[in-house]
């Protein structure tokens, strides 16, 4: 096998379909159920947390699906001591307020306020005690990478460390000069490519890499905004491919050819990177891209040709390209007003996100920790719900066991709104200059000038991004190839991986 750069190590190969890795009978510190641990110790012990990590060892390779439900389905319960402590806190707060602010004559209004204070104090105390139990099961990104023994690692790149997986060629050494990197979509992680990455690597004799975008998966969640931007992740993809190419220098006898693959939001990141610096890119693959193109004559509007799932459509409005094109034949003044409205909308969203962060965090915790939330969302993303396996749902749920996951998610949203439109710059363009070309238009110009081949893969049954959008995008990108998949939803690489891998491999062989 070719040597890889320090910090980038290959993933284990996929096991045969239907074969799960055996779950060890004894964990890192003995298998202890968190529920039983709570009954005995009042709080989850380190042994219980280690047991959860041990049970997730199958997840560590991301392919087996043989992980324990103890951590993911953990439901904290208050002990008698916790209940007594909650009552004591409520009593202390109410007595203090009464002593400081009690009127001479107790009125109905004062009694109502005291009752509301007591209820709020009880709810907050209870939530803090329950959240403390959840926190005891969480680990940092570095701890999970070490405990899961996935064959992946954290690679430093500009203000963050990225969780990177490498799929080596089936022969053990690269026989192709292609270096391929995959970027996942919103709410996902590098596991989104695990069903197709190894097959493409084996078919082409090429090395394929993927990383978790900060805010998702096991990449670090720094305090700075830059690592959460899609532009940052596009630059990180180039860095990772170049590092792999350096480690394999001489293996292929020539310079590497970079190929970027992106799904949905990841496709926006791919476009950002190719527009920023197209040199050295031999091709791009866009799967269900959230890059909205202008209407093509003779076709219905891209957003309104089919029934879209409101939840998925709302998500795509957040992650889509920041400069969706204006309707065709719209007047310049209308375009300027639309640009101003978008800038004000995103500025308001950033302010609300900052002020309401505590409430957003509470909402995220209550939603994300429910298995049914993920099952319903993924069922909408799949065309055929029978193809959605329980282990797939659990892979999406896993980040709830990472310390600081909710803060990282809020930082991603804030960075995304900032990236989609700065208020002052947008207003300046709207008032003084011609509107900037859309991302689709800029990508089309780069593809035309540099002759970069492009493959677009889209499911006909996509309820998040309509299939007509990819048809319009294919019309806009010179020389691009479009593959429409019947009876497939928003996540083709996970729903029908064999078909997707075949199409992508055939396209890449021609580069």
UniProtKB/TrEMBL annotation:
The lineage of its organism: Eukaryota, Viridiplantae, Chlorophyta, core chlorophytes, Trebouxiophyceae. Residues 182-495 form the AB hydrolase-1 domain. It comes from the Eukaryota. This is AB hydrolase-1 domain-containing protein. InterPro entries: AB_hydrolase_1, AB_hydrolase_fold.
